[in-house]
Amino acid sequence: MSKVRTEFGFERNECACADCLAYCVYLPGNLIPADLEAISGRLGYSDLTQFAVENLLASPGAIVRDGNQLIRIPTLVPQRGPEGACKFLHDDRCSIHADAPYSCAFFHAGQDRGEADARSLRGLQAIAREWSSGGIYARLWALLHSMGLVAPSPLEAREGMRRGMERKKNEADGKAHPS
Length: 179
Prior knowledge:
This protein is an alpha+beta fold. It has one domain. It has helices at 18-26, 33-42, 48-55, 102-105, 113-133, 136-146, 154-172, and strands spanning 6-7, 10-11, 56-66, 69-78, 89-90, 93-94. The strands form three sheets. Strands 1-2 form a two-stranded antiparallel ribbon. A hairpin with a 2-residue loop joins strand 1 and strand 2.
């Protein structure tokens, strides 16, 4: 019997459809604190700082409502390759699939919005705890940010994804696309 990965009581997703793959290409998912050890260990790192510098970026992160105000929770995301896709994406496959970041492994493109929001909130709560306690996640983010190892904002990445998907659809439909 295989062991299914779970986080916060949620089971991981195994979808690799074209719509899910688009996220790997345009909007690589953020890590939660537990991902740091899992992914760095999978890649053979014993030093989290070296792992982070060689594989992660500081993202401005998610914007969430805290009472009556909006706050941003900075996140760590995988570095991107020359074309902008997640550095772990090779030949349309994730090279760290078994230990993929939480925001990759526990979401899929067709997921119910309420379910996705609940999963996202749990991950962001874990990240926010790291920020409030000055944990390693927050310290690595600050280091990467200070080094200029910064990801585009999720809003920019989503807009790039929208444009890229529209371009692909137009190409598939045989239509010219604006430059």
